Amino acid sequence: MGKVKNFFGGVRQEVRQVTWPTGKELRKYTVTVFGVVILFAIFFFVVDFAITSLLDVFI
């Protein structure tokens, strides 16, 4: 049981050392992630549409 208590004590110390983002930074990162996801979705939609169209021509 002492090892478990020691482990969680170490976890607590590590979490205290973390530099957490501010609310403004968090919003900025969230918008960036959503923007990149939307761009990738559009890219893969266009690629999928192009490949499907090419296959329809040849088949």
Count of runs of 4 or more consecutive helical residues: 2
What kind of sheet is the major sheet? Answer: none
Kindly, what is the distance between the CA atoms of the first and last residues, rounded to a whole number of angstroms?
67 Å
Poorly predicted residue ranges? none
Series of secondary-structure elements, N-terminal to C-terminal: HH
* Secondary-structure class: mainly alpha
Average pLDDT level? 95
| Beta-strand segment tally | 0
Q: Beta fraction of the residues?
A: under 5%
| Helix proportion range | over 70%
Shape, principal axes of CA atoms: elongated
Radius of gyration: 23 Å
Summarize the structure.
By secondary structure, the chain is mainly α.
